[in-house]
Amino acid sequence: MRPTNRPWRRVTLAVLAIATLVLSTGCSAGLGGPASSRTAQDGVIRFTFAPDPIWDYMNETGVVEAWQRETGYRIETSATWDEFGLFAGGHADIISTASFEVPGLEEQTRRETVIIGRYNAERSRILVRAGDPAQSLADLRGKRLGVFTTVSGTLVWSALVKRMHDMNLVDGDFDVIVADIQNLSNLLARGEIDACICYPDLSARELRDGSVRPLYDGKSSADLFAELAAPGHDGPMGNVFVARKDWVDAHPAEVSAFLDLWDRGLAEWQAHRDEMIERYPQHFAVATPEDIAFMKAYVAEHDWVVDEVRFDPQWAEDESSIFDLMRETGVIGDDITDPKFLPTQGVQP
Fold it and tell me: Which locations, inside or outside the cell, does it occupy (predicted)?
């Protein structure tokens, strides 16, 4: 059920550096598995992850338990949206965040990191009301644009809008309104904003009833980025798996086993996607049978979860090009460096 209160505020902000903690997964329920002891131990992988349906499914169906028996490793989890905080405190070996937020993670936590795996693409879309004649953001200059943060996916859209339309998304060309992520599409349908950077899994009701529609032929930020900068690429990633570099260097077998576990999870998603949506509707912000059916059909056509967690050097190079685009368009400074990647595709422990 969606909240009934809709507080929001108007802001005019310069684009921030990638150093602000934000919500990046768009899910909303408990994380399965044992709570983390938060103390490093041999044979234990401390994994901190925001609520997620695939992880819950792997726990409830015995996949994680079987993996622990087979590998001899134990995985301890902490269910929290504050992944940065636990990582900064040294209480997590692996967390998840957007690839383009990793430099901010290092800056905030003062820990050297490496991206070890991929999970899902940045899936936000630009939505407008159904009757709005706008064909792109170029037609919405000066209008009220709803966002849930001025970083995260907004950074990607800022770079895209600058490249496509030579417009400044957060600083000057739009009346930016920061609102609760779950309320944006409802605010749009009610006419309180004119467009939004919205997640489809948090906009199911309005998309289904036709009160809002996507621009750019329904393409996500990741889709448009691929067209403009990295043909065939599936990013930028809304979630990658990031680990402390010192831990990765000292635990290569654990890293490989962790990636094997998540490859199993991605396979479970492909095989049981509809079941997961039915089983965990809260993760997709749907409740009614109609919205659940809509989300099944939508995800079947626009699946943002990757097929394989491992990646090769070419994928890492393509993923890094989001930083080239953001630097070229002035969204981030030239001093922001690319994150480090650990390509392991095809590599056995």
Answer: Periplasm
* pTM of this prediction exceeds 0.70: yes
Q: Reply yes or no on domain 8-16+123-228 having CATH 3.40.50.2300.
A: no
Distance CA 238, CA 258 (A): 19
DSSP state of 32: P
DSSP secondary structure of 36-60: P--S--TTEEEEEE---HHHHHHHH
Q: Are 8 and 180 a contacting pair, CB within 8 Å?
A: yes
Residues counted in the chain = 349
pLDDT in tens, 116-139: 999 999 999 999 999 999 999 999
Q: What is the mean pLDDT of the chain?
A: 86
For the stretch 41-76, pLDDT in tens is: 678 999 988 889 999 999 999 999 999 999 999 999
Q: Which residue has the tokens 């920061």?
A: 178
* Look-up of token digits 């067209």: 227
CATH topology assigned to domain 44-122+235-328: D-Maltodextrin-Binding Protein; domain 2 (3.40.190)
Would you list the domain boundaries of the chain? 8-16+123-228, 44-122+235-328
**Token pair listed for 138:** 């170029």
Residue 222: closest CA among 297, 306, 150: 306
Burial (CB count within 10 angstroms: exposed 0-12, middle 13-18, buried 19+), residue 232? exposed
* Beta-strand relationship, 144-147 and 195-198: parallel
Residues facing residue 56 across a β-bridge: none
